[in-house]
Design a protein that fits this description.
Helix content is 42%, strand content 13%. It has 211 residues and is an alpha/beta fold. The protein has a 5-stranded parallel β-sheet, sandwiched between helices. Helix 4 packs parallel to helix 5. The longest helix has 20 residues. The termini are far apart.
Length: 211
Protein backbone atom coordinates (compact mmCIF):
# COMPACT_ATOMS: atom_id res chain seq x y z
CA UNK A 1 0.00 0.00 0.00
CA UNK A 2 1.26 3.48 -0.85
CA UNK A 3 2.47 5.68 1.96
CA UNK A 4 2.91 9.44 2.33
CA UNK A 5 -0.43 10.13 0.66
CA UNK A 6 -3.25 12.39 1.83
CA UNK A 7 -6.92 12.34 0.84
CA UNK A 8 -8.05 15.72 -0.50
CA UNK A 9 -11.74 16.20 0.21
CA UNK A 10 -14.02 18.10 -2.16
CA UNK A 11 -15.26 21.57 -1.31
CA UNK A 12 -18.75 20.26 -2.15
CA UNK A 13 -20.73 17.97 0.09
CA UNK A 14 -22.64 15.03 -1.32
CA UNK A 15 -25.88 16.75 -0.32
CA UNK A 16 -24.91 19.82 -2.35
CA UNK A 17 -24.17 17.66 -5.37
CA UNK A 18 -27.47 15.82 -5.02
CA UNK A 19 -29.40 19.08 -4.76
CA UNK A 20 -27.65 20.55 -7.79
CA UNK A 21 -28.10 17.39 -9.89
CA UNK A 22 -31.55 16.50 -8.52
CA UNK A 23 -30.51 12.89 -8.06
CA UNK A 24 -28.79 10.57 -5.62
CA UNK A 25 -25.60 8.69 -6.35
CA UNK A 26 -25.63 4.93 -5.91
CA UNK A 27 -24.33 1.69 -7.39
CA UNK A 28 -26.53 -0.95 -9.01
CA UNK A 29 -24.53 -4.18 -9.09
CA UNK A 30 -25.79 -6.78 -11.60
CA UNK A 31 -24.36 -10.26 -11.03
CA UNK A 32 -25.06 -13.58 -12.74
CA UNK A 33 -23.72 -16.22 -15.08
CA UNK A 34 -22.24 -15.42 -18.46
CA UNK A 35 -25.17 -15.07 -20.94
CA UNK A 36 -27.66 -14.48 -18.13
CA UNK A 37 -28.57 -11.14 -19.73
CA UNK A 38 -26.73 -8.73 -17.42
CA UNK A 39 -25.35 -6.51 -20.17
CA UNK A 40 -28.68 -6.37 -22.00
CA UNK A 41 -30.45 -5.28 -18.81
CA UNK A 42 -27.72 -2.76 -17.98
CA UNK A 43 -27.92 -1.14 -21.43
CA UNK A 44 -31.70 -0.76 -21.26
CA UNK A 45 -31.64 0.40 -17.63
CA UNK A 46 -29.08 3.09 -18.42
CA UNK A 47 -31.19 4.19 -21.39
CA UNK A 48 -34.44 4.38 -19.43
CA UNK A 49 -32.93 6.22 -16.47
CA UNK A 50 -31.65 8.98 -18.74
CA UNK A 51 -34.48 9.04 -21.28
CA UNK A 52 -37.50 8.59 -19.01
CA UNK A 53 -36.28 9.86 -15.63
CA UNK A 54 -33.68 12.43 -16.61
CA UNK A 55 -31.01 11.06 -14.26
CA UNK A 56 -27.40 10.49 -15.17
CA UNK A 57 -26.27 6.87 -15.13
CA UNK A 58 -23.17 5.20 -16.48
CA UNK A 59 -22.72 1.53 -17.31
CA UNK A 60 -19.54 -0.31 -16.37
CA UNK A 61 -19.51 -3.52 -18.42
CA UNK A 62 -17.34 -6.54 -17.67
CA UNK A 63 -15.90 -6.96 -21.16
CA UNK A 64 -15.51 -3.22 -21.76
CA UNK A 65 -13.48 -2.70 -18.59
CA UNK A 66 -11.13 -5.53 -19.53
CA UNK A 67 -10.22 -3.62 -22.71
CA UNK A 68 -8.67 -0.88 -20.59
CA UNK A 69 -8.54 -0.57 -16.79
CA UNK A 70 -8.29 -4.31 -16.19
CA UNK A 71 -6.56 -5.51 -19.34
CA UNK A 72 -3.69 -6.82 -17.22
CA UNK A 73 -5.94 -9.31 -15.42
CA UNK A 74 -6.80 -12.88 -16.35
CA UNK A 75 -9.51 -15.16 -14.97
CA UNK A 76 -7.82 -16.90 -12.06
CA UNK A 77 -9.56 -16.60 -8.70
CA UNK A 78 -7.03 -13.95 -7.61
CA UNK A 79 -7.46 -11.96 -10.83
CA UNK A 80 -11.26 -12.15 -10.61
CA UNK A 81 -11.08 -10.80 -7.06
CA UNK A 82 -8.83 -7.93 -8.13
CA UNK A 83 -11.09 -7.24 -11.11
CA UNK A 84 -14.08 -6.79 -8.81
CA UNK A 85 -12.10 -4.77 -6.26
CA UNK A 86 -11.10 -2.24 -8.91
CA UNK A 87 -14.60 -2.01 -10.31
CA UNK A 88 -16.05 -1.47 -6.85
CA UNK A 89 -13.65 1.42 -6.31
CA UNK A 90 -14.56 2.98 -9.67
CA UNK A 91 -18.30 2.49 -9.08
CA UNK A 92 -18.00 4.19 -5.70
CA UNK A 93 -16.32 7.19 -7.34
CA UNK A 94 -19.20 7.48 -9.82
CA UNK A 95 -21.76 7.16 -7.03
CA UNK A 96 -19.93 9.71 -4.89
CA UNK A 97 -20.07 12.16 -7.79
CA UNK A 98 -23.87 11.90 -7.76
CA UNK A 99 -24.20 9.52 -10.71
CA UNK A 100 -25.82 6.10 -10.80
CA UNK A 101 -23.19 3.48 -11.54
CA UNK A 102 -24.55 0.35 -13.22
CA UNK A 103 -22.11 -2.55 -13.15
CA UNK A 104 -22.64 -5.80 -15.07
CA UNK A 105 -20.05 -8.36 -14.04
CA UNK A 106 -20.29 -12.08 -13.42
CA UNK A 107 -18.62 -11.41 -10.04
CA UNK A 108 -18.93 -15.09 -9.11
CA UNK A 109 -17.64 -14.99 -5.55
CA UNK A 110 -19.94 -13.90 -2.74
CA UNK A 111 -17.03 -12.60 -0.67
CA UNK A 112 -15.96 -10.25 -3.48
CA UNK A 113 -19.48 -8.85 -3.84
CA UNK A 114 -19.74 -8.44 -0.08
CA UNK A 115 -16.46 -6.55 -0.14
CA UNK A 116 -17.80 -4.25 -2.87
CA UNK A 117 -20.83 -3.54 -0.70
CA UNK A 118 -18.69 -2.96 2.38
CA UNK A 119 -16.55 -0.48 0.43
CA UNK A 120 -19.67 1.56 -0.37
CA UNK A 121 -20.74 1.49 3.27
CA UNK A 122 -17.52 3.23 4.37
CA UNK A 123 -18.11 7.02 4.25
CA UNK A 124 -15.91 9.04 1.93
CA UNK A 125 -13.72 11.35 4.04
CA UNK A 126 -15.76 14.45 4.82
CA UNK A 127 -19.08 12.58 4.64
CA UNK A 128 -20.99 11.01 7.53
CA UNK A 129 -22.66 8.19 5.61
CA UNK A 130 -21.78 5.63 2.98
CA UNK A 131 -23.36 5.14 -0.43
CA UNK A 132 -26.30 2.94 -1.45
CA UNK A 133 -25.41 -0.40 -3.01
CA UNK A 134 -28.16 -2.34 -4.75
CA UNK A 135 -27.30 -5.93 -5.67
CA UNK A 136 -29.32 -7.40 -8.55
CA UNK A 137 -29.15 -11.16 -9.06
CA UNK A 138 -29.77 -11.87 -12.74
CA UNK A 139 -30.77 -15.48 -12.33
CA UNK A 140 -30.98 -18.05 -15.13
CA UNK A 141 -30.29 -21.80 -14.97
CA UNK A 142 -26.91 -22.70 -16.41
CA UNK A 143 -28.72 -24.78 -19.05
CA UNK A 144 -30.51 -21.67 -20.30
CA UNK A 145 -27.33 -19.60 -20.30
CA UNK A 146 -25.57 -22.35 -22.22
CA UNK A 147 -28.35 -22.48 -24.81
CA UNK A 148 -28.06 -18.71 -25.36
CA UNK A 149 -24.25 -18.65 -25.41
CA UNK A 150 -23.92 -15.74 -27.90
CA UNK A 151 -20.11 -15.81 -27.72
CA UNK A 152 -19.73 -19.58 -27.86
CA UNK A 153 -17.97 -19.56 -24.50
CA UNK A 154 -19.80 -22.46 -22.90
CA UNK A 155 -18.99 -24.67 -25.87
CA UNK A 156 -15.31 -23.76 -25.59
CA UNK A 157 -15.42 -24.40 -21.84
CA UNK A 158 -16.98 -27.83 -22.38
CA UNK A 159 -14.22 -28.61 -24.87
CA UNK A 160 -11.54 -27.51 -22.39
CA UNK A 161 -10.44 -24.59 -24.54
CA UNK A 162 -11.42 -22.06 -21.84
CA UNK A 163 -10.20 -22.93 -18.37
CA UNK A 164 -11.85 -21.80 -15.12
CA UNK A 165 -15.13 -20.85 -16.77
CA UNK A 166 -17.88 -19.86 -14.35
CA UNK A 167 -20.71 -22.38 -14.18
CA UNK A 168 -18.71 -25.13 -15.88
CA UNK A 169 -15.21 -25.46 -14.42
CA UNK A 170 -15.35 -22.63 -11.85
CA UNK A 171 -18.06 -21.93 -9.26
CA UNK A 172 -20.75 -19.27 -9.20
CA UNK A 173 -21.89 -18.42 -5.68
CA UNK A 174 -25.42 -17.07 -5.95
CA UNK A 175 -26.40 -14.12 -3.73
CA UNK A 176 -28.26 -15.06 -0.58
CA UNK A 177 -29.84 -11.66 0.08
CA UNK A 178 -29.76 -9.57 -3.08
CA UNK A 179 -32.01 -6.52 -3.01
CA UNK A 180 -33.48 -7.56 -6.36
CA UNK A 181 -33.82 -11.10 -7.73
CA UNK A 182 -34.67 -11.26 -11.43
CA UNK A 183 -35.52 -14.64 -12.94
CA UNK A 184 -34.33 -13.49 -16.31
CA UNK A 185 -35.40 -16.56 -18.27
CA UNK A 186 -39.01 -15.85 -17.34
CA UNK A 187 -39.25 -12.10 -18.07
CA UNK A 188 -38.97 -9.88 -21.14
CA UNK A 189 -36.18 -7.30 -20.90
CA UNK A 190 -38.58 -4.41 -20.34
CA UNK A 191 -40.31 -6.18 -17.44
CA UNK A 192 -36.98 -7.01 -15.83
CA UNK A 193 -35.83 -3.39 -16.08
CA UNK A 194 -39.21 -2.26 -14.73
CA UNK A 195 -38.61 -4.45 -11.68
CA UNK A 196 -35.34 -2.62 -10.99
CA UNK A 197 -36.81 0.85 -11.50
CA UNK A 198 -39.79 0.06 -9.27
CA UNK A 199 -37.38 -0.93 -6.50
CA UNK A 200 -35.43 2.32 -6.95
CA UNK A 201 -38.65 4.35 -6.82
CA UNK A 202 -39.97 2.52 -3.77
CA UNK A 203 -36.76 3.24 -1.86
CA UNK A 204 -36.53 6.90 -2.85
CA UNK A 205 -33.44 6.56 -5.04
CA UNK A 206 -34.96 8.37 -8.04
CA UNK A 207 -36.58 11.79 -8.44
CA UNK A 208 -40.30 11.81 -9.10
CA UNK A 209 -41.26 10.87 -12.62
CA UNK A 210 -41.99 13.89 -14.81
CA UNK A 211 -45.66 14.33 -15.66
Amino acid sequence: MATNITFHASALTREERSTQLNQRGLTIWLTGLSASGKSTLAVELEHQLLRDRGVHAYRLDGDNVRFGLNKDLGFSEADRTENIRRIAEVAKLFADSGSIAITSFISPYRADRDQARALHEVPTPGESTGLPFVEVYVDVPVEVAEQRDPKGLYKKAREGVIKEFTGISAPYEAPANAEIHIKNHELPVMDAVKQIIEYLDKNGFLPAKKQ
